[in-house]
């Protein structure tokens, strides 16, 4: 599993023998449970709220709309019922991308605001976009995971100035890059049983190339206005290519 935002992700360092890596599935316990009936789920307030917020994100958020369109253009059309699942998760995560099923998990017990849903869906859609366009070895190649986590932190709005202020983190020169690096490392440690040094090394080795890979946005969208412009540019690019 590749996870989204984490409040206090556990580190992967263990004492004694190294435990077998569960690839972060421990954070998403509903993944291993038998699906509940639609009636039972519909009566669950968290699930209802999650579905409503998800629908709002997919219909109105320019970050998500651009990524959905880009995935469609790449041959990976996303369907709400098939590719999104609102579930209960561990308290430290908000969402994840399950590469084994090509499904985005949204943590209905941890996502309480529309702005949070927008950011989590965008973050996980970037993982899904990378999964669609490239041969990402999520489970065995930590550099591949690091690259996608860098891109997700960089392009999803995770590291906007307002979000960093809300975390009581302040900085001037290079602060965005620092935030992206730190959040990529935290994400790796939450879902892989590797040392902090291993996670840092993987992120540092691919940082420049992956930080500068801005597809499909073409720019770092620091706000919804930036995302709307990127979406318009993407649509115009597609129209131009279609006329060649």
From TrEMBL:
<dbReference type="GO" id="GO:0005739">
    <property type="term" value="C:mitochondrion"/>
</dbReference>
<keyword id="KW-0645">Protease</keyword>
<keyword id="KW-0482">Metalloprotease</keyword>
<dbReference type="GO" id="GO:0034982">
    <property type="term" value="P:mitochondrial protein processing"/>
</dbReference>
<dbReference type="GO" id="GO:0046872">
    <property type="term" value="F:metal ion binding"/>
</dbReference>
<keyword id="KW-0378">Hydrolase</keyword>
<protein>
    <recommendedName>
        <fullName>Mitochondrial inner membrane protease ATP23</fullName>
        <ecNumber>3.4.24.-</ecNumber>
    </recommendedName>
</protein>
<keyword id="KW-0479">Metal-binding</keyword>
<dbReference type="GO" id="GO:0033615">
    <property type="term" value="P:mitochondrial proton-transporting ATP synthase complex assembly"/>
</dbReference>
<dbReference type="InterPro" id="IPR019165">
    <property type="entry name" value="Peptidase_M76_ATP23"/>
</dbReference>
<dbReference type="Pfam" id="PF09768">
    <property type="entry name" value="Peptidase_M76"/>
</dbReference>
<dbReference type="GO" id="GO:0004222">
    <property type="term" value="F:metalloendopeptidase activity"/>
</dbReference>
<comment type="similarity">
    <text>Belongs to the peptidase M76 family.</text>
</comment>
